[in-house]
Write a structure and sequence with these properties.
Length: 258
């Protein structure tokens, strides 16, 4: 079995694969995972609770946008699983041509998403929208050229900003609102958070197409925790919640680690 882990600003997203099929996904609050023991014990516990034997984990891969946790994650993999993990980072094989001005600046979660998307939709122009702590939009040509894209505050981050920088606003559940014109503060916040994201995504997809995808309209893929909220908006060709994990699994194989 392979264990793939995406260390994000809010959560560590994990997935267990066997024969390219995903057996289990799980999340852990990043802020509660500061030491190798906390990480290792949590993962082993999750596996056992789901009737998976931790000793059967043969390979581990992770990507991270939280450098402070990289050492703890490496140590947890070695100490609790006896496996030296593969780390998706600058210099490894990805199958992509990175066109970013400074390639080392690209978040490795974005690279993992791109690896998986180009594998699932070969020789297609792609836009990947990842609804995480930040919402990222990435553009990849049909020649596997990763050009970059746009980064904007995610829905929860926007909500927290309103909560902490205003006197009367409060956190609300992030949902697809049942009205656009909110008749209460709660409804107004939910409408604003949702349609702010939706409007921005629609505009970015349109402008990406005008700027980069003139010859071939892109396939638009959504991933991340809030992607499901937008499934009825007819802007995505596919919603793949575990895209980053599938990209990590493919990176393992590209680099001869699996």
């Amino acid at each position: 079995m392979q264990l793939c882990l995406d260390i994000g600003n809010s959560n560590i997203l994990g997935g267990v694969f066997q024969d390219e099929k995903i057996l289990l996904t799980f999340r852990h609050d990043t802020k509660q995972a500061s030491s190798s023991d906390q990480i290792g014990l949590f993962i082993k516990s999750v596996l056992r609770e789901n009737n998976l034997d931790p000793s059967h984990i043969a390979q581990i891969a992770f990507c991270s946008v939280v450098p402070a946790l990289d050492y703890s994650m490496r140590s947890a993999c070695i100490k609790y699983f006896g496996v030296t993990p593969f780390v998706l980072q600058a210099g490894v094989k990805t199958g992509l041509k990175i066109k970013y001005s400074h390639p080392q600046e690209v978040g490795t979660d974005r690279i993992a998403n791109a690896i998986a998307a180009t594998h699932q939709f070969p020789k297609k122009s792609l836009v990947i929208v990842d609804f995480g702590t930040a919402t990222t939009c990435c553009a990849i040509t049909n020649q596997n050229e990763y050009w970059g894209g746009a980064i904007l505050p995610g829905m929860r981050l926007a909500m927290e900003s309103l909560q902490h920088n205003t006197a009367k606003l409060f956190p609300v559940e992030i949902v697809r609102p049942h009205v656009v014109v909110g008749c209460s503060t709660k409804d107004s916040l939910q409408s604003g958070l949702y349609y702010m994201q939706l409007g921005a995504i629609k505009e970015l997809i349109s402008r990406f197409s005008q700027e980069l995808f003139i010859a071939q309209q892109p396939i638009v893929i959504a991933t991340g925790g809030f992607a499901h909220l937008f499934e009825k908006e007819n802007i995505f060709h596919a919603i793949v919640p575990d895209l980053v994990l599938r990209g990590l699994l493919l990176a393992l194989k590209l680099n001869g680690a699996a």
